[in-house]
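note to self: dont lose this again. the chain is below, predicted strucutre after it. 299 aa total, dont forget to put it in the shared folder this time
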Amino acid sequence: MDNKIKKSSSCIAGAKKFNITPYLLILPMTLLFVAFTYYPFAKAIFLSFSVTKRSGDFAKWVGFSNWIRIFSKTEFWQIVWVTLKFALINLVFTLGIAMFFALLSATRVPGGKAYQMLFSLPMAIASAPTAAIWTFLFKQQGGILNWILGTSYAWTQETSTALMACAIVNIWMNIGASFIFLLVGFRNVPDELMESATIDGASPLRKVFSIQIPMASPQIFFVVFLSIITSFTAFAPIRLLTNGGPANSTTTLIYSVYKNAIINGRFETACVYSMALFLLIFIVTRIQFYFENRMVHYQ
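---
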């Protein structure tokens, strides 16, 4: 009898432990994720195997025909190559410039906050005004860059410089956020460790490569991850500066999604490009996390 009472009381106590309040609190955010992330993603997968109307609605099922048609074109692989090249340029220069500024700001000096504000200022400007400013800088006639150099070069209309021009804009936009993350990492390096290295006669470069960079490796890893993702999804610089030209030299996967869906009305083709972009980001991030355990030190 006592055992039955204990069991019933334990069941009642277990039932009382369930609290619906946390689920109600996360319900609005869950609904937003389902409506604006998971549902569009699932629909894009479905439409990539279909033929759509110009409105984007489903017309008929065609299986892998869209994928075979797109993946068999040389143009698609050229777009993938442009996307990878654009991401690589952004990664190298964003990481290098942001790390240089962060190392300069790592030591607290009087008036240093003013420089930190200037270094991080680009992140406060939206992408469309930024691209508009740089469009004026790159103009062939009356552009500030040509006026400084004394040239009359069409920076955004030549295949040799158009991609670099778009990359410069994207790099300038993302340096601020990368600088802040790296500055936090370098500021977390213990002062005692730096002082010990100085007493042992370590040069400034030796302290940077042997102490500061290894100690800030988690932040560096995050900046690398952030730079690659923002490069793959960079749209405004390409749309406003070059429209994917000249000769598709600046057409990336994200711009191809816009071009096929909004301009050409081929939503099934745009969905295939978006899935290709998703697979590319997935593969790159998997490679990054594979090297995380070998190159990132959390202690």
